[in-house]
């Protein structure tokens, strides 16, 4: 295991149980082996290597510096995904505070000056990468490593 992946491993060790309380979780982190391509090529190659479906230009790039009330806010996307149950939206899951902490721990695993955060879901809809009825995927990467956090649920 690379020392660069240690923070991502600590992230999932801390968050797996709370996340799995209301969703199936797939988390994968690895070092990047090839030079970076476009963000969509990188994300598609990564999910395809895990047996998931590439979605091309439908990956939404999020702004990791935006406040939760700004467009394309990564913080807002994490809070939307994790605050309440994906199937029963009136049931609290992590709540706003813990969802924001999960977000901070995830993005903190990547070099700030080099990180990119993507999702398969935004206000306009979602683009599935799995066969789950409900899902929300986040990919984070910097110039050295990449990780997928995929949350899935059935109704």
Approximately how much helix is present in the residues? Answer: 25-40%
Radius of gyration: 14 Å
Strand order of the largest sheet: 1-7-6-3-2
The strand count comes to 7
- How would the global form be characterised? globular
Please report which band the strand proportion falls in: under 5%, 5-15%, 15-25%, 25-35%, 35-45% or over 45%. Answer: 15-25%
Describe the largest sheet: 5 strands, antiparallel
Tell me what you see in this structure.
With 155 residues, the protein is of the alpha+beta class. Helix content is 31%, strand content 23%. The chain is built from 4 helices and 7 strands. It has helices at residues 6-20, 39-49, 74-82, 95-107; strands spanning 24-31, 60-62, 116-119, 121-122, 125-126, 134-141, 145-153. The strands form 2 sheets. It has a 5-stranded antiparallel β-sheet with strand order 1-7-6-3-2, sandwiched between helices. It has a two-stranded antiparallel sheet with strand order 4-5. Helix 3 (74-82) packs across helix 4. The radius of gyration is 14 Å and the shape is globular. The mean pLDDT is 94.
Summarize the structure.
The protein is α+β, with helices and mostly antiparallel strands and 155 residues long.
Question: Which descriptors apply to this entry?
Answer:
155 residues; alpha+beta; 5-stranded antiparallel sheet; 23% strand; globular
Outline the fold blueprint:
Blueprint: H1 6-20, E1 24-31, H2 39-49, E2 60-62, H3 74-82, H4 95-107, E3 116-119, E4 121-122, E5 125-126, E6 134-141, E7 145-153
Antiparallel strand pairs: 1-7, 2-3, 3-6, 4-5, 6-7
Helix pairs in contact: 3-4
